[in-house]
Amino acid sequence: ETGVTQSPTHLIKTRGQQVTLRCSSQSGHNTVSWYQQALGQGPQFIFQYYREEENGRGNFPPRFSGLQFPNYSSELNVNALELDDSALYLCASSLDRSVNTEAFFGQGTRLTVV
Amino acid sequence: GESVGLHLPTLSVQEGDNSIINCAYSNSASDYFIWYKQESGKGPQFIIDIRSNMDKRQGQRVTVLLNKTVKHLSLQIAATQPGDSAVYFCAEKGSGSGYALNFGKGTSLLVTP
Predict the structure, then answer these.
(1) Which residue of A has its CA nearest to B95?
(2) Element (H, E) at B37
(3) Residues in chain A within 8 Å Cβ distance of B100
(4) Predicted pLDDT at B95
């Protein structure tokens, strides 16, 4: 186990609704990244948070937003859900934000939009 | 944008044989490469990493080779076991926004008895 925990594990939402996913980073890690993994694809980078600030963002629309808290846990919020948002959402924590730092992934949240 | 891709989508090997999974990358500025294993219903699990100043790194039953000249990465698994069956992803850092991991699509490894 990586020590990265995500909740909930599964979630079903209706198109147009909003969702909040949560991630607790590994102890001592100050950097959290979120990824979206569609079925049969590799994870796609959404954004990264370092010490409560957004440190980089991938090619995702503004309706994907996030937060990082003082204890370095993090939330991913998605507004106005679309059917294509159905995916496995992965959180990864790292000791810091440098390039050569291993990222530890949680088990993911499986989001289904109907 | 820059891409990381895998040569083969599926690989089937017999238990006890060695496995080789290949990966091509296109960004010569990539600094750090990681291989992940993902079992069904789970998040990616770190296997081994290699920095751009190295060409080979060994772990327990696994070896990663990096050829920067042709921008190619491979993962070798010795004496493949049924528990090695999973999807394997290569990922790189050093390109893209922030310090994002840029993943390929993955290779499915099936180990048969």
Answers:
(1) A99
(2) strand B32-38
(3) 33, 45, 48, 56, 58
(4) 53
